[in-house]
Amino acid sequence: MRSSSKIKIDPSQHELVPKHEVLSIEEAYKILKELGIKPEQLPWIRASDPIAKLVGAKPGDIIKITRKSSLSGEVVVYRYVISG
Predict the structure, then answer these.
(1) In the chain, what are the domains?
(2) Which residue, 10, 19, 82, is CA-closest to 45?
(3) 3: helix, strand or coil
(4) Maximum CA pair distance of the chain?
(5) d(CA 62, CA 31)
(6) pTM of the model
């Protein structure tokens, strides 16, 4: 007989999932100013994405993603959170 409880997996603990963090308003403003763009010009991530949910991102937030790279050490990318 199968148990009705769901298995919960934390995707952030997987070795291939990079570090995700929601930027503060000040940090987001600074990054957008440095890049000379509007938030909507960043690549998007849906608020329903498992990692976005895990870090508590809401539509309008900007997520900083830090990936490890064998060639350049670390690569930082940003995503704009949209509804959905």
Answers:
(1) 13-82 (3.90.940.20)
(2) 82
(3) coil
(4) 58
(5) 10
(6) 0.80
pLDDT at position 5: 58
Nearest to 52 by CA among 17, 15, 6: 17
Give the mean pLDDT per block of 10 residues along the chain (84 residues).
58 72 96 96 95 94 92 92 94
Give the pLDDT of residue 69.
82
Specify the pLDDT at position 12.
Answer: 64
How far is Cα of residue 78 from the mean position of the Cα atoms in its chain? 7
End-to-end, the C-alpha distance of the chain in Å comes to 36
Q: Distances from the Cα of 21 to the Cαs of 1, 3, 4, 66, 79, in angstroms?
A: 40, 34, 32, 9, 10
